[in-house]
Amino acid sequence: MITLDAIGTFALIVGLLTLTPGLDTALILRTAALGHRRRAWGVVLGIQSGTLVWGVLTSLGVTALLTASHLAYETLRWAGAAYLVWMGGRLLWATWRRSSGESPRTAGTGAGAKTRTGTGTGTGTGDTLLGGWRQGFVTNLLNPKMGAFYIAVLPQFIPAGASHLAPGVLLAGVHILLAVIWACVLIAFAHMLRGRLQRPSTRRYLDRVTGTVIAAFGIRLALGQ
């Protein structure tokens, strides 16, 4: 049976990992800052669904095959890199196209700006829970480093001779719980700043920063860094 000390140590490790700014943080903040609260929670649930899948696969030994197979790991790595670069590039392209097509007169009016920015760009349109879940789930599953992290860390906290599935799911649940709590903080913070982020110029800047971060993660993944 897994001990409380093991759970506490694992919680500390994944807690520090959760607090480290990264792709998940960028996705959640950007989506919530646009006022898409349902989609933001969809992104959170999608990411954590992916985390649960990685935890189950690691407990069953599937991710060990992934890390042992160079071809499987490289295939997943390049697929994830291509997806992230496409998602970030699409977001950047949408902001540049919107900026070049915006006339000085409509730039200062709420109606014209809302028409161009109110529906969301790049990483998906519409404030839908399912759309956000799909985005978060695919992003998490196409990140082979999640699998590598779990295969390196999770077995160290599972008692020898015990069934791996139940303790593995329990530890993944601890990770998910901490991540959801942190997501609540991020969404609340973005909601507080939503008034300032409704300006078209500010939203374009936010989208460009987020798109750059997402594309950079994809490039780093492709380079194996």
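(the above was protein one; protein two follows)
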Amino acid sequence: MFNRNDKIGIVACSNGINVKKKEEIKELVIILKNMGFVPILGNNIFADNSIFCGSSIEKAKSLMDFYINNEIKAIFDVSGGDIANEILDFLDYDVIKNNPKPFFGYSDLTTVINALYRKTGAVSYLYQIRNLVSECRETQTKDFYNSLFLGKNDLFDFNYKFIRGNKLKGTVLGGNIRCLLKLAGTEYFPDFQNKVLFLESRSGNEGAMISYLTQLKQMGIFNKISGVILGKFSQMERENIKPKAEELILNVTKDKSFPIVKTSDIGHNKNSKCMIIGKDIYLKDK
């Protein structure tokens, strides 16, 4: 996927990185350089006593600058939070479509990733590159390097179990359930016809999850999809909240027959695998 000395762009399209975490970003840059990348930081990364690291237009420009630059081979977002969707109106999707390159981000970047697919058909990667400087750095760095430089699937292969059905096939869309629903009713919400819906969540109890799932049902999404992959629902799993996320979706979709898969390998955990958004997937019961 990548070669040594490939240049990559680093952006923060959602909440800015607190200036107190500059050392963490510096450490990340060193790790990326040691792998063989040439990382280039965008203009709008850090925030001081605020969530803002620039205006929506400024952040969009930082992202577009990397798309326009032919030397940049991929773009990695290091942020998360609440405000990534504010840049969507200021992106030039024709330019992005004509200058395709991998985009990596997670959590709130669900909004950008699914908008990119809706507008350009782009394949993106639901993954937080800051995992490389987390407590799971050793495993993450190994899987990241093996997959992106050596062509292995260490970062993309995940454990799963079927909770309904035994085969699942289709193009994966989705991401963080709360953030995906920010796109509802907008021109950026993708068409889920015959797609596989991936959902995960960092926070939220059973009440929040049933609300989100009910909204998806009322939008008609469950009438369109070919299946569901549930990632890690961090708060619910950490606090052993009942009913579990998989029980909630089984109940909300009890009149449906599409397959449902559960994995705890993908989500907000520091040892998370990467889910490729916009790419076909095929899973079968083991």
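Reviewer note on protein two: The radius of gyration is 18 Å.
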